[in-house]
Amino acid sequence: MPYLNRLIEGYHRFREKDWEHERERWSELAEGQSPRVMILSCADSRVDPAQIFDARPGEMFVVRNIAALAPPYETSRGFHGVSAALEFAVTQLKVSEILVMGHGLCGGCAAALTGQFDETEPGEGHFIADWVRMLSGARDEVKARHEALDRAAFLEMEREAVKVSLANLRTFPWIAERERAGELKLHGAHFSISEGKLYVLDEAEAEFRPV
């Protein structure tokens, strides 16, 4: 049976329960959206921000990609999907907070650390390799601190990726300006799949702490 059939069954359950329960909310959302926070999360199927944060419809503007990465600010023409989403959230929706949420057992971070897709041909992983190349500096630092690529090394890579994204976000002039003016706050977090725990980054201390 095509998986689409299961999706449609889920849709019917949504119509009967969640949509009916939040009918007034959906009526409000039909007039537009005004989320206060943007979540930049990984595309990994195990880390759905709406589920983790028990969010209501329209509460969060969510962008998901490999390893929850924010690219640096670039002015070249092209297809800048994440940058376009950031621009829309910050300048049009005027969100007041952005949360970058990495996670445990992240395949994208593992690929960056191991170089799994380096030197691959088109169709075999070269898009992934190009994307996670944003983490090359962090990878070198993690490798320098770990003789073996054990679980501790992968965890550190996942958390360093969050810091890289936060640094990249601050290269966008309209993000940096709003942060300096106190109109926008940036946060980092790491969700541990094995523990079901969220760790929030204290940037002043450069530490992730459970909440």
TrEMBL record:
Its cofactor is Zn(2+). Its EC number is 4.2.1.1. Pfam families: Pro_CA. InterPro entries: Beta_CA_cladeB, Carbonic_anhydrase, Carbonic_anhydrase_CS, Carbonic_anhydrase_sf. SMART domains: Pro_CA. It catalyses: hydrogencarbonate + H(+) = CO2 + H2O. The keyword Transcription does not apply. The keyword Signal does not apply. It comes from the Bacteria. It is an enzyme of class 4 (lyase). Reversible hydration of carbon dioxide. This is Carbonic anhydrase. It comes from Sphingomonas telluris. The lineage of its organism: Bacteria, Pseudomonadati, Pseudomonadota, Alphaproteobacteria, Sphingomonadales.
